[in-house]
């Protein structure tokens, strides 16, 4: 199972968490987010990042030119699109050799057929809890609705995953479940991850994957 730790911004914290070897680290470029990296965010923040960890830039309704420029500046292999980006937008971005994670806000009435137009363009979908506006809520959705997803694009499960419910989430049996997106439940403050919590949850996920 893939693991993604999202919402980092401080160099020391990035270095510490990268030592735990998650598959992805996410950096938020949405100014309204409490985990926004800030205007002074620098490439130097990645100086100790192992090359095998994929860096992900997170964007909300940004234009293709800015997403591309930021991804190239910081060496992001992936762009996570967390807004209302269209299939055409994703296709245009993919032509710039940027891999895409497309987030979808999930509630009990979500129609998974809307994901079909994104298939073949996105490397992963990210299924997150629907909230007012954009971004994380720290809350999970009813995972049983995932049974309705019959697409071929792998997805990461997101939304309120923490030490208290990660074991329950790993009971989900879905052929396209590729991993877990982890954020606010593992923090000491917005944008600062708790090393011990991250270590514990990654170990829990990895032990389960071996069984």
UniProtKB/TrEMBL annotation:
It catalyses: N-(5-phospho-beta-D-ribosyl)anthranilate = 1-(2-carboxyphenylamino)-1-deoxy-D-ribulose 5-phosphate. SUPFAM superfamilies: Ribulose-phoshate binding barrel (SSF51366). Keywords: Amino-acid biosynthesis, Aromatic amino acid biosynthesis, Isomerase, Tryptophan biosynthesis. InterPro entries: Aldolase_TIM, PRAI_dom, RibuloseP-bd_barrel, TrpF_fam. Residues 4-203 form the N-(5'phosphoribosyl) anthranilate isomerase (PRAI) domain. GO terms for biological process: L-tryptophan biosynthetic process. It is an enzyme of class 5 (isomerase). Pathway: Amino-acid biosynthesis; L-tryptophan biosynthesis; L-tryptophan from chorismate: step 3/5. GO terms for molecular function: phosphoribosylanthranilate isomerase activity. Its EC number is 5.3.1.24. Belongs to the TrpF family. PANTHER family: N-(5'-PHOSPHORIBOSYL)ANTHRANILATE ISOMERASE. This is N-(5'-phosphoribosyl)anthranilate isomerase. It comes from Cryomorpha ignava.
């Amino acid at each position: 199972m893939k693991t993604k730790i999202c919402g980092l911004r401080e160099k020391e914290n990035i270095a510490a968490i990268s030592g735990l070897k998650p598959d992805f680290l996410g950096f938020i470029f949405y100014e309204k987010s409490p985990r926004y990296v800030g205007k002074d965010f620098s490439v130097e923040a990645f100086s100790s990042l192992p090359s095998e960890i994929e860096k992900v830039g997170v964007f909300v309704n940004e234009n293709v030119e800015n997403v591309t420029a930021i991804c190239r500046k910081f060496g992001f292999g992936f762009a996570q699109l967390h807004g209302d980006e269209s299939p055409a937008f994703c296709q245009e971005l993919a032509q710039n050799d940027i891999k895409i994670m497309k987030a979808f806000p999930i509630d009990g009435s979500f129609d998974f057929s809307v994901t079909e137009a994104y298939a073949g363009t996105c490397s992963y979908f990210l299924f997150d809890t629907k909230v007012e506006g954009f971004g994380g809520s720290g809350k999970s959705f009813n995972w049983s609705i995932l049974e309705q997803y019959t697409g071929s694009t792998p997805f990461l499960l997101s939304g309120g995953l923490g030490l208290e419910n990660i074991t329950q989430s790993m009971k989900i049996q879905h052929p396209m479940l590729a991993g877990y997106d982890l954020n606010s439940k593992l923090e000491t403050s917005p944008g600062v991850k708790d090393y011990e919590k991250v270590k514990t949850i990654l170990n829990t996920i990895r032990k389960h994957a071996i069984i």
